[in-house]
Specification:
289 residues, 5-stranded parallel sheet, 3-stranded parallel sheet, binds guanine
């Protein structure tokens, strides 16, 4: 069965819109998300445009801050300081990756934790590790929502997360191991140095593929009846009009017949990531009510 992220995200967007309408009725502040993009990376531009469009759909105010590729680290830090101090802005994100001359970690740490709706700041990551209420990084948050909305059983299941990025793999592994629902899995975090990956993955009840390698996960690595979550969105060059096709980390056509549930690409995790950012932004404004 397909885990239809497009459909579920539309339902959640509708719920957020109702909450925003209720806020407006009550004379409360309308949530305002700012998105900063540095440079001209095609994929990053597409993602940020989708985030701005989602703001429009739910009735948020949005600001799209476009900065030149050549901006200095210091100038970017000043832009962040402006957003930290701008009371009209409830939350903001700096789209990653950043140009090589900018220290990404320094930028992440400059964002006020109260406005860090991406959940990347060390304080927010720490809170997530401790199970405290915080901004959960949008992709893992979206995956948790998807598992919840489809009422997928997670307690006691063997879950394998492939990929240990700060944005997806690491927080995902922590969330799924929490004493909560979704959660309570026995989690194995696999990465580029993992030995016998196929042996480990093929025992999993739930697989989260988040390594960023197109069509990496093949049918021989998947147990019959597994739940497969595909986080990949790699642009693979081809002869189409766009010049590329989007591929997930899962070889969908051969893996899908073995799964109890699987996310498609596109239309699975991607739209859930965007809606999670909207949920975090609503949380940011609610905290400051
Ligand atoms: N680059 C890839 N994913 C993300 C994300 O969730 N947030 C930001 N800011 N940049 C990203």
């Amino acid at each position: 069965m397909l885990l239809d992220g497009k459909k579920v995200s539309q339902e959640i967007l509708e719920e957020i819109k109702l909450a925003v309408d209720a806020r407006k009725q009550a004379g409360k502040k309308v949530p305002h998300l700012a998105a900063v993009i540095v440079g001209n990376d095609g994929a990053s531009k597409t993602y940020v445009e989708s985030k701005i469009r989602a703001c429009e759909k739910v009735g948020f105010i949005s600001s799209h801050v476009k900065l030149d590729e050549s901006i200095s680290e210091q100038a970017l830090l000043s832009e962040i300081e402006k957003l930290n101090n701008d009371a009209s802005v409830d939350g903001f994100i700096i789209q990653l990756p950043l140009p090589k001359h900018i220290n990404e970690q320094k930028i992440i740490e400059a964002v006020s934790p109260q406005k860090d709706v991406d959940g990347f700041h060390p304080i927010n990551v720490g809170k997530l590790c401790l199970g405290m209420k915080t901004f959960v990084s949008a992709t893992p948050f979206g995956i948790m929502q998807l598992l919840k909305r489809y009422k997928i059983e997670t307690a006691g299941k063997n879950c394998v997360v492939i990929g240990r990025s700060n944005i997806v793999g690491s927080p995902m592994s922590i969330l799924l191991s929490k004493n909560d629902y979704p959660g309570n899995c026995t989690v194995t975090l696999c990465h580029s140095k993992t030995q016998n990956l196929k042996d480990i993955v093929s025992k999993a009840d739930i697989i989260v593929a988040a390594l960023g390698k197109a069509e990496f996960l093949t049918a021989d690595m998947v147990k019959q009846g597994a739940v497969v979550i595909d986080v990949g969105i790699t642009r693979v060059s081809d002869n189409s009009a766009k010049g590329y096709t989007i591929k997930g980390d899962v070889k969908f056509d051969e893996v899908a017949p073995k799964c109890s549930y699987i996310t498609p690409v596109p239309g699975g995790v991607g739209p859930m990531t965007i809606v999670s950012l909207m949920m975090n932004t609503l949380q940011a404004v609610e905290v400051s009510d």
